[in-house]
Design a protein that fits this description.
By secondary structure, this protein is of the alpha/beta class. It folds into two domains: 167 residues, TPP-binding domain (Rossmann fold), CATH 3.40.50; 85 residues, SIR2/SIRT2 'Small Domain' (2-Layer Sandwich). The protein has 13 helices and eleven strands. The strands form three sheets. The chain has a six-stranded parallel sheet with strand order 3-2-1-7-10-11, with helices on both faces. Helix 10 runs parallel beside helix 11.
């Protein structure tokens, strides 16, 4: 029994050492980067207390009927915009009151990396506005923002509280864009709805441009968002290296270093799309990376 306890303790110490080495490696990659970005997913939001959808205790795992209804939302908007808005304004959000949710240490760590000039931006799957609340400036909200409305004609976005949506609904009026008069919908991208072209194009450009990509709290299985790390990996550049015989050779290598920070391995891990995985909670790992960056940069 004593030997087993010692073995467990040795494994724990080895894992801690590996974690420290990986955090130092990530800090080094970020410091030497010219264009680092982060991709974030539901794992960051769950650490702030927001339920996920398909996990063991997920919203749709517990309530399959809610998932079935979600698949019909966009078609309802197209067929009956007034009914769509009535339902959105009267029915409680399945995610609860997102306005009461606060950013966690992971959100603040990414915002700090941006303030330091290291992180150039975030592409997030999350609709909860927590990156903005934490202070990040350059955010691409791939699946939209639950607090915003978007014009279906010109794609302009505003926070919903800038409109009297309930007053319009009482008067039987639909919310219209102040820029072009187009019909507004929630900025959230529903099932069956295309990713807005402006966000899709900019996200692809960011993935192609970056030389370091942090993958934070996403399972990387929901497409087309999950294609972004693969786009980054496909981008290759020519680099010169000295061969053993003394001659210089030119070889094509990946243009970006992809770092996963996830509680569990993902398809990116198994298919070697990512360079390495730091296994843990984003709210714990990211602040340690920031501290290591500060320490090394002194």
């Amino acid at each position: 029994m004593i030997q087993l306890s010692l073995l467990v303790e040795d494994c724990r110490k080895e894992n801690e050492l590996n974690m420290e080495e990986l955090i130092e490696r990530a800090a080094g990659d970020l410091i030497s980067s010219k264009y680092a970005i982060a991709l974030t997913g539901a794992g960051m939001s769950t650490e702030s207390g927001i339920s996920d959808f398909r996990g063991p205790s997920g919203i749709w795992t517990k309530n399959p009927e809610a998932e079935s209804k979600a698949y019909q939302t966009y078609e309802k908007f197209l067929a009956d915009p007034r009914g769509y808005w009535q339902e959105r304004l009267r029915a409680p959000s399945i995610l609860g009151d997102l306005g009461e949710v606060k950013p966690n240490h992971g959100h603040y760590a990414l915002a700090e990396l941006e303030r330091m000039g290291i992180l150039k931006g975030i592409i997030t799957q999350n609709i909860d506005d927590l990156h903005c609340k934490a202070g990040t400036q350059n955010i691409l909200e791939y699946h939209g923002n639950a607090f915003k409305v978007r014009c279906t004609n010109c794609s302009s976005r505003l926070y919903a509280d800038e409109y009297d949506l309930e007053g319009l609904e009482r008067e039987g009026e639909l919310p219209l864009c102040r820029n072009c008069g187009g019909l507004l919908k929630s900025d959230v991208v529903h099932f069956g709805e295309p990713i807005p072209l402006d966000v899709a194009h900019r996200s692809q450009e960011e993935a192609w441009t970056c030389d370091v990509m942090l993958i934070c709290g996403t399972s990387a299985v929901v497409y087309p968002f999950a294609a972004l790390p693969r786009i980054a990996r496909e981008h290759r550049v020519e680099r010169e290296r000295k061969a053993d015989i003394g001659l210089y050779m030119v070889e094509k290598v990946s243009a970006s270093t992809i770092v996963e920070i996830n509680a569990e391995p993902t398809p990116l891990t198994y298919e070697n799309t990512s360079d390495y995985l730091i296994q843990g909670k984003t709210g714990e790992v990211l602040p340690k990376i920031v501290e290591k960056v500060k320490e090394v940069s002194r």
